[in-house]
Amino acid sequence: MVANLLGLLLVLFQLVLVARAVVDWIDVLGRGRGGAALDTARRITHSVTEPVLAPVRRRVRPVTFGGAGLDLSFLLVFVAVLIARIAIVPLIPF
Questions:
Q1: How far apart, in whole angstroms, are the C-alpha atoms of residue 65 and residue 75?
Q2: 44 vs 86: CA distance, rounded Å
Q3: Bridge partners of residue 70, in order along the sequence
Q4: Would you give the DSSP letter of residue 94?
């Protein structure tokens, strides 16, 4: 039961991570013209995910391509949560 609850929390965290990526892309592609709803979504997703992403971001440097940088902390956290989910709640054969 505890494993299932923890697995559910990890799934919800992954969904918030995906929502953060979508919100950030909308902000980038819309050049900051998202309005109040986008600001609220950004504030919520960042407040939930930033405590986990920030320590990883401090340890892992962005990969640079010319003048642009790619932050790998998001990908590393997403994969780590996925692995944790699989380890905690193994796939049940039907």
A1: 17
A2: 26
A3: 63
A4: -
C-alpha–C-alpha distance, residues 70 and 63, integer Å:
5
Whether 27 contacts 9, CB under 8 Å = no
Start-to-end CA span in the chain (Å): 19
Place of tokens 């920030």: 54
Q: pLDDT tens across 16-45, in order?
A: 999 999 998 888 787 767 678 888 999 999
Can you spell out the DSSP letters for 63-76?
EEETTEEE--HHHH
Residue 94 has pLDDT above 50, yes or no: no
Q: Measured between alpha carbons, how far is 75 from 90 in angstroms, rounded to an integer?
A: 22
For residue 65, list its beta bridge partners: 68
**Distance between CA atoms of residues 11 and 17, nearest Å:** 10
State how far the Cα of 40 lies from the Cα of 46, in Å rounded to an integer. Answer: 10
